[in-house]
């Protein structure tokens, strides 16, 4: 069975960002700590963190208490922000990527479906923030987000 799925890189980036969101904002976490707690290969995580830093989502601190922390409040970082920082623009089908031009596009009967799926995926990823997954808010937010998305 084929799956439409988020890449491992995006999954690990989300797991790392969610972990950082659960920490005290003044605390920095090492890549080794995040990798251990989230069961992510450390070398791969270090590359992902560089992308998150370039995307303005994570900041690094050098020194004895150095490490990584979110660069913005968790309520201001969406799933879309994290995914696009490590993967680039989200597209559910190649024909929906801005730089792609499909030779069948003018007669494509599926483009309406792909466009609607794209719109809804981006809506959910944009609306869902790291703060929505915090322990004290996750049950209420997830149930209301999921029920309004259905």
Task: Give a description of the structure.
The protein is mainly alpha-helical and 150 residues long. The protein is 51% helix and 5% strand. The protein is built from six helices and two strands. The protein has a two-stranded antiparallel sheet with strand order 1-2. Strand 1 (58-61) and strand 2 form a beta hairpin. Helix 1 packs across helix 4 and helix 2 (31-38) packs across helix 3 (42-54).
Shape: elongated
Q: Percent of residues in beta strands?
A: 5-15%
Termini, distance in Å? 24 Å
- What's the mean pLDDT score? 86
Structural class: mainly alpha
Helix content: 40-55%
Strand order of the largest sheet: 1-2
Count the E strands. 2
The number of helical segments is 6
Order of helices and strands: HHHEEHHH
Backbone CA Rg = 17 Å
Biggest beta-sheet profile: 2 strands, antiparallel
Model regions low in confidence, pLDDT < 50 over at least 5 residues: 137-141
